[in-house]
Amino acid sequence: MAREIEAESGRAVVIQADLTRPTAAAEAVGQTVKELGRLDILVNNAGFLTYGPLEEVSAEELDRVLAVDVRSVFLAARAAARHMGDGGRIINIGSRFNGRVPGANFVLQAMAKSALIGLTKGLARELGLHHRHRPGHGRRLHRLTTPQ
Question: How large is the average pLDDT for residues 122-130?
Answer without folding.
Answer: 81
